[in-house]
Amino acid sequence: MHYPATTEKLVKKPQRFALESKPKAFKQIFHLSLSALNIEKIREFYELNFACKVRRTTKSGKGIHIDFFGHQLTFVEVTPERHRQIREENEHGSPLVHFGAALPYFFWCYLKKRLERNQVEFCIKPHLKFEGEEHEHYVMFVKDPSGNAIEIKSFTNTNDWL
User: Fold this and answer.
1) Rounded distance, CA 56 to CA 78, Å?
2) DSSP-derived 3-state class of residue 95
3) pLDDT score of 84 more than 70
4) Which of the 8 DSSP states describes residue 78?
5) Of 14, 128, 144, 151, which residue is the least packed, with the fewest Cβ within 10 Å?
6) CB neighbours of 83 closer than 8 A, spacing ≥ 6?
7) Domain holding 61: CATH number?
8) Is residue 119 within 8 Å of 103, Cβ to Cβ?
């Protein structure tokens, strides 16, 4: 693999799964780390509502790493004083600071029903956003027990997910 700006190789030693040799065998994983007010409530919320699995707990027990649809979501328990986060909204009314997943429509519907069944309050109710535009998608927002906003969406044109 070469760094785009130079011809210097980044990988000095041969690796079993080089990017060029098996592009389908290598998956790039997104990582996001957030603060939590209560790590057990966070664990329960993500396990119950999104069927996520905790992959690792820190030695102190104050941090967890969750498999969030194939990506790494990390939470570290902090005091309320340290748990500061922007609560503003963007021009579309969505929480400015948020994370989430873009999923196939059938799975978006499944999660909508699951969240409703578990009586999770939507901070933005499920709806179709940007109707008729290229980036049209179904969207819903919920907040975890620490107030972190989670966006779950499904694009109607799967070729336009970025």
Assistant:
1) 18
2) strand
3) no
4) -
5) 14
6) 35, 36, 37, 146, 147
7) 3.10.180.10
8) no
Q: Where are the beta strands (DSSP E) in 71-120?
A: 71-77, 98-102
**What tokens appear for 7 in the block?**
């011809």
CA 12, distance to chain mean position in Å, is 33
Q: Answer yes or no: is 89 within a domain.
A: no
Categorize the per-residue pLDDT at 140 as very low, low, confident or very high, splitting at 50, 70 and 90: very high
Q: What is the mean pLDDT of residues 83-92?
A: 61
Q: Which of 50, 53, 70, 51 is nearest to 151 (CA)?
A: 50
The pTM (predicted TM-score) of the whole model is: 0.67
Q: Is residue 73 in a domain?
A: yes
Assigned token pair, 32: 């996001």
Residue with tokens 């941090």: 63
Check if the beta carbon of residue 104 is closer than 8 Å to that of residue 161: no
Residue 5 burial (CB count, 10 A): 6
Over the stretch 17-57, which tens digit does the pLDDT of each residue have? 333 334 444 566 687 888 889 999 999 999 999 999 999 89
Place of tokens 């780390």: 33
Q: Name the amino acid, one letter, at 82.
A: R
> What range does the domain containing 104 cover?
31-79+98-155
CB 129 within 8 A of CB 94: no
